[in-house]
Input
Amino acid sequence: MNQNRPFLNMKGIAVVQQDYPLTLQGGYPMLNAVIVDDEIPVLNLLKMFLQKTGQVNVLEAFTEPLAVLDKISKIKPDVVFLDIEMPEMNGLELASRLTEQDDELMVVFVTGYNQYALKAFQVNALDYLLKPVNLNSIQRCVLRLLKLKGLGHQQKSVGNLQRICCFGDFEVYGNNGLVKWTTRKVEEMLAYFIVHRDSNIDGWSLGEILWPEEEPDKVKTSLHTSLYRLRKTIKEEGLSIDITSKNCGKGFYRCSLGQCSCDLVEFEEATIKNNSLNKSGIDEFERVCALYRDDLFSKKNYGWCESKKEWLQQFYLNMLKNMAIFFVDEGLYQKAIDKLLTAIAKAPFDEEIHKSLLKIYGTQNNRALLIRCYEEFKIRLFKEMGVEPQVETRKLFLKLLSE
Amino acid sequence: MAIAVIVDYNEDGLQFSLSILKSIGHFEDVYGFSCPDEACCFIKERGCDVLFVETEVKGLNCFVLINKLRKIKQDILFIIMASNEDYAYEAFQKGVIGYVLKPLSLESIAKTIGKLEKLHRSQRRIVP
Output
């Protein structure tokens, strides 16, 4: 994959052509869900977590319980996630009335209070989650629902709840939810294997990277112990990751991720396909962009992946810039601004991104934001780097201001 | 639904629960044990589909027993029989499917069995 470094100019942005949801839905069990909560932020968070499991289609989200009663027979979800304390009708009563309409509907309560648990059992709820919810509890709940629905064994065989997240914090989800590694070195070893997957890894070099300060004998022992622990955890968690040893005179290892889905793999697959950005492909760009939650292993201090991290970040920034250009061409200025602001958060000193943003504010005749954007950039540059914006940027700003 | 097992330290309570479950007529066989170890041995040999368990049996917390039994047989559905609602939230957390208050009544058991049947039906609908 590294040999196939993509073309990074403005028109050469990469996307994957396939329709993403189908790759997860096709042949894999999915739950159709409806969410009801009177608080919109909670609703959004829940929706995001459910979608992140890759096993749930959120068909509709409601803030008003009565609206659900009218529509449930048309939507026909497998499961409803209900808040309990809501105006108009509480979640317990809503659950009873919904199951009267469809007695196979599964009910999960998501509430801030634990005192309704008995009542929840009495209305035949299958799970009861306490707020604030997190991805781990949602993941466990979805796994449980699938199992109860008789889809658990299918899920297990394809293992598509198994997930590796490399962007942002390094998280691996196995059959028991978020995997807890026995040591930090075991975790780092897996991270290294993931980045260098499907290629031969020299055991000696790996040892030196992970234990740079140790004596050779100690490195060898540490390497074998950590590898043993890593394989043991992989087995216990039912992960489809396979690490094979190749002892042809030298110690080589090779790692394959099998059916385990991984954000880094998906992102890199996208980078090697050079498709141009157009109306039909924009959703795919959004999806690939969303994979990049933060920099590669951003919360870990893995020195060995610095160049990879930088390259991925550059690619991401170029995607954002290209999407902004596309949105400007389509007249969708706010969307373009959102993309550029996201890019600025990642690259606060990038002149090109700031120039694009200034142009949009100029086109919109928004003098206040135009001045603010330029002045903030100028102050930031001076404060952090002790320099002024480039002459071209200044000229552009003055030209836009005078127009 | 094939085999149901009840684990209850109190002999009278056990007999009462047995009579209710048998009268409901949803299970092919219903077995009762007052000793958790005996129940484990039985389940190891004969299996179990639904297990009704008291919150505490001979000083053993029901969740400890549930964990132990899950290692023997993964897909048992657990229903807790309790005298109060103290364990209800934890029951959800531990993946328990039903929670009924004692003394058991035909109505509460029928309702819980209805939930199991509903799941059973939806499984048949989805898995060919």
